[in-house]
Amino acid sequence: MRFTIIGSGTLVPDAERGSAAFLLEEAGARVLVDGGSGTMTRLKRIGVDVRELDGGVYSHRHVDHCGDLVPILFALKVGVELPRTRDYPIWAGDGFQGFLDGLYGVYGAWIRSDRWTTRVTELPLDGAGTAMLPGGVRLDTLPANHSAGALHLRFTSPDGFVTLFSGDTGPSDNLIQLAANVDVFVTECAVPGKDPWDSHLGPDDVAAIVDAAKPRRVIMTHLYPDNDPETAVAKVARTGVRVERGYDGLVVEG
Ligand SMILES: [Zn+2]
Ligand SMILES: [Zn+2]
After folding, report:
1. What is the CA(24)–ligand 1 centre distance, in A?
2. 2-248: what fold?
3. Which ligand has the shortest distance to the CA of 199?
4. C-alpha dihedral over 41, 43, 44, 50, to 10 degrees?
5. pLDDT digit string (tens) for the chain, length 254 residues
6. How many Cα atoms occupy the beta-carbon half-sphere of 183 within 13 Å?
7. Which residues surround ligand 2, an ion (CB under 5 A)?
């Protein structure tokens, strides 16, 4: 399995960091994981055309995670020199089909085609979910502590390499459960301290999860500007686990 951070940032405009997006590759299959504003352009910079993707997985429906969905569907629809003829499957939490129906209500035929469909597989928001993705990757999900139908996403390659994406979340026992012994834990660390709304993690929260679950490697993303990255990384590094701040273009292979 190979994944690339396409966007390591947040909803806050940043010249170096796009909104959340990741590319997962296995056995020639390429699946987009989240995809905020600017995802199409940043994918193209690394030679990946959204019209050739094998599908998309969404952690939740906040705009910094799925803002490029409409531009992607428009590109698939119109295609120009690459008209799409196969489905564009989507995996996301319960309610995503209704969200997509709302977008169809706004954009109609501009983002729909009679040559392909978006086959949405909805995963439960009240318990464990699982699905098989292109390339033989297994997706396991549990609900996250966040709004907008949020899930934690754990990907297991056919040869057993495991990558976990926290998605946006506050402190979450489900996240600790999924993080046990994973190879790579890509986690949000939005806030510098304790989030008063309990819907994002701070470095002390991440350190507690890492202490409990012992992932082999931690990559921190989705830091708001007031969260000093060196301080945040240092706090998590005290667990003894390898930790770094993610950046757009970071590639992990395993
Ligand atoms: Zn969110
Ligand atoms: Zn977010």
Report:
1. 20
2. Metallo-beta-lactamase; Chain A (3.60.15)
3. 1
4. -90
5. 999 999 999 999 999 999 999 999 999 999 999 999 999 999 999 999 999 999 999 999 999 999 999 999 999 999 877 778 899 999 999 999 999 999 999 999 999 999 999 999 999 999 999 999 999 999 999 999 999 999 999 999 999 999 999 999 999 999 999 999 899 999 999 999 999 999 999 999 999 999 999 999 999 999 999 999 999 999 999 999 999 999 999 999 99
6. 14
7. 64, 168
